[in-house]
Each structure stands twice: as structure tokens, then as C-alpha cells.
Amino acid sequence: MRNSQWSVKGNTKFLITLTHQLLEKLPNNVTTIQELRLIAPNSAIASVGRPRFEQLPFDLAVPDIDIDKLEAQWRSLGTLTLKDINPEFSDGMEIDSVKFWGNVRQLSNAIGETPYEQLADFCLKALTLPVSNAVVERVFSIMNAVKTRARNKMQLEILQCIIRIRVHLKEVLKSCCIDFQPSHDMLMRFTSQMYESTRNPKDLGTPRQTSNSTAEGEDLLEMITLFDNDNESHDCL
For the residues of 1-42, what is the DSSP string, one character each? Predict the structure, then answer.
């Protein structure tokens, strides 16, 4: 009897210690990570059980975001169907969140306005949150391999482009530069204009300010479009 009591106490102490250690290892933003599920395609336009606007992961929003405009766009989005967003989408279909919000951003009305641009930008930026330390460590490993001592003066935008290409080739296409086949859209962009910059040369080493949401949104949409076209041309991989 005494041995069983000691066994129960020992097991209880072990479980308590294990719980404390697990809590120490878990990040403080677990709730924010869980909230990312609310902007999944099937949740965003669900007819039943659709998340409320205040439940969205606003911890990931930029400080100058227009909450009222976002709320209006979120409510309006609930009136659409998957077919309204993309004719290829259907109920029960597993839809990539990045592709979904990329399509939402490109929706336009009769006068050419994009009524869901701000909401789509917010969701796309929220989806860039790394969900594991391994992802971050992998990116830093690539960065250290690219930006060596010999290339220490590499501009930030060039570094970002090289990292983006390497990650996309390795993680998405499961390929390398040797057998990579550029899409038609990429070849059409390969002109002298790709070397032109509208920014001040002194500012090329610094990232764009978050207040310049239009430029950021255009860059984000361009990246999604290029990668989406690239994926379609590499379905055989």
C-alpha cells in the first residue's frame, strides 16, 4: 500500500514537472497561430459557423491598418461563394490559402475597383508567420550561405530575392536551378526594365516602410502570380 502511494506521488510529481517544462517550451503566441485557421478558405466564406471579425489574428496587423474598412470587406466577403472567387474552386475542395487570398485580392467590381484588397493583403501577410523554429532556422541557414564575407555588401532586396528563389525551388518545386524551366510570364519580364529602380539608390539597402501598403501589396500580388504560374508549368515535378 505504501509503495503504491509513493508510486502515485512520484507519477504526479513527474507529470507536474513535465507540464511546466512543456509550457516553458511553447511559444507565447500559440493563440495567434491557432487564429490563422480562421482565415482558411473554407472558414472565410463558410455559410455556417463563419468566424466573427473580432476573432481574426489582429496581433499580426500593421499599426496603421484601417479596422473599419477591413470589417466592411470581411462582412462583404461572406456573401460570396467559392465560384465567385475562382470558377475552379468548389465546395469540399482543398484550397491553398495563399492562392485563395491572391484570387480574392484580384476581384474587381464594375468600375475596376478591388473591394477586398486591404483584407487580402492583411491575410496574406498573416500567413507569412513561421509556425516552427525549423522554418526560421532553415531560412537563416540559406541567408548565411548566400551572404558570405565576400558578399557582405549585398543589398537587402537582392538578398531577399535570392532567398525567395532558393526556398521556392527547394521547398515547393523540389528542384534546383539546373532543371528549372521558367514560365512564359517570367520570360516576358526579362527585359532591360528589370534593372531599373524607382527608388533612391541610398535606400536600396533598407526595406520599404510598412505605411507604403500599396507598393507592398503590389509586390505581394506579383510574387503570388509568378509563383502560381510557375507551379502550373511544373505540375510534372
Answer: -HHHHHHHHHHHHHHHHHHHHHHHHS-TTHHHHHHGGGGSHH
Q: How many domains does the structure of the chain reveal?
A: 2
Same domain, 157 and 220: yes
Residue 161's domain comprises 134-232
Q: Contact, 41 vs 82, CB < 8 A? A: yes
pTM (whole model) above 0.90: no
CB atoms within 10 A of CB 157: 16
C-alpha cell at 82: 467559392
Q: What is the pLDDT along the chain (237 residues), one digit of tens a residue?
A: 555 655 767 788 888 998 888 777 766 667 888 889 999 998 999 988 999 999 999 988 888 889 999 999 999 999 999 999 999 998 888 898 989 999 999 999 999 999 999 999 999 989 888 877 788 888 889 899 998 888 888 888 889 888 888 887 877 677 777 888 888 888 888 888 877 654 544 444 444 444 455 556 556 666 665 555 555 544 444
User: Of the residues 91, 126, 161, which one is the last residue of a structural domain?
Assistant: 126
In a domain, 13, yes or no: no
